[in-house]
Amino acid sequence: DPDAVFSEYWDELPEPVRHVLALAASVDTHYVPEIIATAAMAAGIHDAREAIDRGATVYEWTRLLDATLHAFVEPMLFSIAKSRGVDQQLIEDDLQALRQTIRDAVDDEPLLERLSPSSRLTLWRHHVSLVEQGLLPTDHAAAASASNVAEDCSDRHDHNEAIRLLELALDRKSTRLNSS
């Protein structure tokens, strides 16, 4: 049973590696390692950057898509990191640190400039997802992230999703205007 084998492999990973992989899996199959490292360090994992690198190079649970974007190698590894890691490894403070790191990152222009276009889009998608789940506020940053993701959807001819995201962005802007 491959699931049992990889679950056992998960248990053998060093705790810091499990922690960063669990944080990454809590958002999606693709993630921005700098965001995960910042959130993990806030949770007390001081060697988070090294743990992220080891997750990719030593243990091969993830791979580098570019210098600022990683992804899980296989859906099964993502699933195990999500089920075992998020449910058993992380506490609410870890998830809150990650949400706050994502929220702060979308307003951090120097960080955004360092990220590849794919990483920026991934970050904005994570932000929009957290807003839609009610885990982050619908604020100016949410409107900007939704607009950025909508532009990408339009470029890929996914016009229905672009419209839905623009409505989310416009709802936020109209709410702010009406409350002034």
Features:
180 residues, mainly alpha, three-stranded antiparallel sheet, 10 helices, 3 strands, 6% strand, globular, disordered C terminus
Describe this structure in words.
The protein is mostly helical and 180 residues long. Helices cover 71% and strands 6% of the residues. It has a 3-stranded antiparallel β-sheet. It starts with a helix and ends with a helix. The C terminus is likely disordered.
Concise structural overview:
With 180 residues, the protein is mainly alpha-helical. The protein is built from 10 helices and 3 strands; from the N terminus they run ααβααββαααααα.
| Number of helical stretches of at least 4 residues | 10
Determine the strand fraction and express it as a percent band: 5-15%
Topology order in helix (H) and strand (E) letters? HHEHHEEHHHHHH
Shape: globular
Low-confidence stretches: 173-180
What is the number of strand segments?
3
Oligomer: single chain
Query: Would you tell me the structural class of the helices and strands?
Result: mainly alpha
How many angstroms separate the termini? 59 Å
Any idea what the radius of gyration is?
17 Å
Average pLDDT confidence is 87
Instruction: Please give the share of residues in helix.
Output: over 70%
Major sheet details? 3 strands, antiparallel
Read across the widest sheet, the strand sequence of neighbours is 1-3-2
Topology:
Elements: H1 2-12, H2 15-25, E1 30-31, H3 33-42, H4 48-57, E2 62-66, E3 69-72, H5 75-88, H6 92-105, H7 109-114, H8 117-132, H9 140-155, H10 159-178
Helix pairs in contact: 1-5, 2-3, 2-4, 2-5, 3-6, 6-8, 8-9, 9-10
